[in-house]
Each structure stands twice: as structure tokens, then as C-alpha cells.
């Protein structure tokens, strides 16, 4: 932190306000706290006033109470994605309870297995890290196609001992995790191509198109993710995709098309929508017939 007088701080606030920063006082305090020297502070204020996202200038974002490293040209985790995290934690907690029930029934040894969490299109890895941080036993795998995002995610995911891979959607994930994923959590690009030009300049100019562009109706990546999800999910695993209220029906249709049963969840305060896909329930066994050998027991 560099020392600055109240007059210095007031000058920074005036400069940031003139540049259109709505929370100029808060930002001035954060920049002053982050700068090591007066020259550092001047450079940071210049970058912010010229339109760089605050998080790129600081080098971190506050997400779910965690300090997440954010490099230039990497998508800044949004506050609304904290709803996706909350939903994923709820799903994971239910899976852990189900697993504990199976363990206590003597079908598997207690603590035998960590929950497998996959954060696809992970960007900084913020979503997966927040989910894994909240769980006692989790194994996190995060993947992204963009090398800058992958390098950034490696810094963040190290805090929970997870793994980060680079490549297209599921391609780089370890094959041994097929059919074993308990929580597949996704915030992929979902802005329709024709609407990219209307995004705020901080996103349009400082985040890469691959992080934003979801194709003609914004749901192209969701369709690809949903189509391959059943092959990766554990029998009781769930797919959670952040989308918009307007696109939720199409994201849900993509899940239905792949054989999952979608549930749309929404939070008005955060203006956040998440579609959760589950496998359809098994049909009840016919009365008086034994299940085929090996069909009952554990589901994993
Ligand atoms: C909207 S950003 C979200 C990042 C992160 N999940 C978050 O919520 O902060 C979408 C991310 O998807 C990645 N992405 C886009 N297409 C991809 C693909 N085909 N395979 C893997 N990652 C992809 C982008 O590089 C970008 O980091």
C-alpha cells in the first residue's frame, strides 16, 4: 500500500468519476491499497480511467468472499455467478448426504470417495474454486480453451489442490473421470453474436470474444455441453449451466434433447438463472421380479 493524503485520494476520486466510474470512492481506496509506490498508483489510475476493468487493474476479483486472481484478457467473474455456486453447493451437499447414507448402509467404506466437481469453461476457475472451497471432500477438475484463462485458473485452483486443463470443452479432461462426475458446473459464453456490440466497453474491449460469444442464439455452447454431459455424469450427477432468463428455455431444451431432466432456477435479486439437469428417475422394478445381477448395490 502506498501512502496518499486525503487530497491525493480526492483527486483520484475526481479522475475516476470523470471517467465514468460509478463507485469512484471505493475504487480509489482499493487502488491506493493495492499500489506499492506512488508511480504504481498513478499507472493503475491511468489504466482504470482509460477503461480497463477494475479487476484487471487490481489483478484480482472478490468472488464469494474469495480473492480470485484475474489476468488481463481473462473474463472477470460476475457477481451473478455466485448463484450458480450456491446451486452447485446445494447439489453437492445432497450428493454427499446420499453417499453417506450408502456408506452407513455398509455398501461402501466411509470417506471412500471425494465428490468429483468439474468446472467447464472455467475462465479464472472462480466458480469451481468457490464450490470446492465450500465442500469438505472435493476433487476439482477445471478446463478452458483459452491459454490465458488456463494460466490464470492454475493460480486460483492451486488453493484447493485441483487440476486445470486446456482444450475444447470435455476433450482435455481425464478419461478415467467419465461417468464419475457428481457436479458439472458451467458458466460458458451465452451472449448471442448479434448482441456482443451492445455489451459495456469493459467486456467488449477487454474480455475475449471466445469468453462472451454464444453463437446466433447464445446457446450453441450449451447445446454441445449438454449433448456430451450424460457420458461424463455419475449416475446421480447433475449438470448446472448459468444462462439468462430469456434463454433458459433453450438451455433446458438442450438438456432434454440429451436425455436429462431440466429444472430452471432463478434469483431475482441477482438477476441470475441456472438450469439444472438430472438423469430421469429409474422406472420402478416390476413386482415380484429380481433385479438383474449387479444392478442394485452401489450406483457408482
Ligand atoms: C463467460 S466466460 C466464464 C468464465 C468462468 N466460468 C466464470 O464464470 O468466471 C466463458 C469461458 O468459456 C471459455 N470457452 C469458450 N468456448 C470454450 C470451449 N469450446 N471450450 C472450453 N472453454 C471455452 C472461454 O475461454 C471463457 O473463459
Give a structural overview.
This protein has helices spanning 6-18, 24-34, 38-49, 54-58, 81-104, 126-134, 147-157, 201-206, 209-212, 220-232, 248-257; strands at residues 60-63, 66-69, 115-120, 138-144, 163-166, 181-186, 233-243, 261-267, 272-278. Helix 1 crosses helix 2 and helix 5 packs parallel to helix 6 (126-134). It is elongated. The protein contains 11 helices and 9 strands. Mean pLDDT is 92; it is low at 291-300. The longest helix has 24 residues, at 81-104. 39% of the residues lie in helices and 19% in strands. Helix 6 links the parallel strand 3 (115-120) and strand 4 (138-144). The termini are far apart. A 7-stranded mixed beta sheet has the order 5-4-3-6-7-9-8, with helices on both faces. The chain is α/β, with parallel strands linked by helices and 300 residues long.
Low-confidence stretches: 291-300
Distance between the termini: 51 Å
Q: What's the gyration radius in Å?
A: 22 Å
Helix count, DSSP H or I runs of 4 or more residues:
11
Biggest pleated-sheet summary: 7 strands, mixed
> What is the chain-wise order of helices and strands?
HHHHEEHEHEHEEHHHEHEE
Strand order of the largest sheet: 5-4-3-6-7-9-8
What percent of residues are in strands?
A: 15-25%
Indicate the overall shape: elongated
Give the cofactors and ligands. S-adenosylmethionine
Share in helix: 25-40%
Overall mean pLDDT: 92
